[in-house]
Design brief:
39% of the residues lie in helices and 18% in strands. With 275 residues, it is an alpha/beta fold. The longest helix has 18 residues, at 164-181. The model is unreliable at 5-11 (pLDDT under 50).
């Protein structure tokens, strides 16, 4: 097993059978989490992986807006009992991966009630066996709903930018995940890096802070795994404004190449059998 391919934390919820469930989350909004989730899904699908991207931000879902997609059946219909989970899956030939959009009207599910918990888990358990990878694009912050979504994942990828506010919120998220879910390793991706190597340096600085101030249940220091940097790139804004995947809009731009490298690392370290 590669050194970065680690077992699921003992404190998280039991991982559903089938796909490796990976949650993308962030301490604050505006760091590019949903954009990154969609493009990583596309990059992994190009490598032959069966990928489902689920919009787990029930209160402020925007994956459909970002990709200019519309589905007649959404997660809202599944939660209200009007459709089965498999009926809400949107197969997008252009993207190369499947999606499950949250839809409108999901604000009523923005609190983690027992009903929401049960429905969410039912959807994941029903769909995970059909895929190699199930990506959860969670909400931001540390609400109960976000933390529950993350708890369903065997691995967590935290997205941040070099901005001090983003790093502060990423650190707060890491502390909560360590305390509430017993996680001892998390993966970090730094978006909008100004220079090559900035993200790895940021990961190292955060690691030093964690080793000094954060203790896990086992007493071992929290391990941050640097998954890569995405450089600041004007092509990203162009793709967002056009509501297109960057990998389709400008596949040779620096940000797209960086996303492809991160997808390669995810495949090598996450999509491997767990011993």
């Amino acid at each position: 097993m590669p050194s970065d391919a680690l077992p699921a934390p003992a404190g998280a919820s039991p991982a559903p059978a089938g796909a490796r469930v990976v949650a993308l989350t962030s301490g604050k909004g505006g760091v590019g989490k949903t954009f990154i989730a969609a493009n990583l899904a596309a990059a992994l699908a190009r490598r032959g992986q069966r990928v489902l991207l689920l919009d787990a931000d029930l209160a402020l879902a925007n994956l459909d807006v970002m990709l200019n997609l519309h589905s007649r059946v959404t997660l809202h219909d599944v939660f209200t009992g009007r459709a089965a989970p498999e009926d809400a899956v949107l197969a997008d030939a252009a993207c190369g991966f499947d999606l499950l959009l949250a839809g409108s009207g999901m604000v009523e599910y923005s609190r983690l009630t027992p009903e929401v918990r049960e429905q969410f888990l039912r959807v994941i358990e029903a769909l995970a066996p059909r895929y190699d990878l199930l990506l959860l694009d969670t909400g931001t912050g540390i609400s109960d709903l976000v933390l529950y979504s993350v708890s369903l994942a065997c691995e967590v990828l935290i997205v941040t930018t070099p901005e001090p506010t983003a790093l502060t919120d990423a650190y707060a998220t890491i502390k909560v995940l360590a305390a509430q879910q017993g996680r001892e390793h998390l993966r970090l991706l730094v978006n909008q890096a100004a220079r090559p190597g900035d993200g790895r340096a940021i990961t190292g600085q955060l690691q030093q802070v964690l080793e000094r101030f954060l203790s896990t249940e086992s007493g071992r220091p929290m391990r941050l795994i640097h998954m890569g940097d995405i450089p600041s790139d004007p092509s990203v804004r162009d793709a967002v404004m056009r509501r297109q995947l960057l990998l389709l809009h400008a596949p040779g731009c620096p940000a797209a190449l960086a996303l492809a490298q991160i997808a390669n690392k995810m495949e090598a370290t996450l999509l491997v059998p767990v011993a």
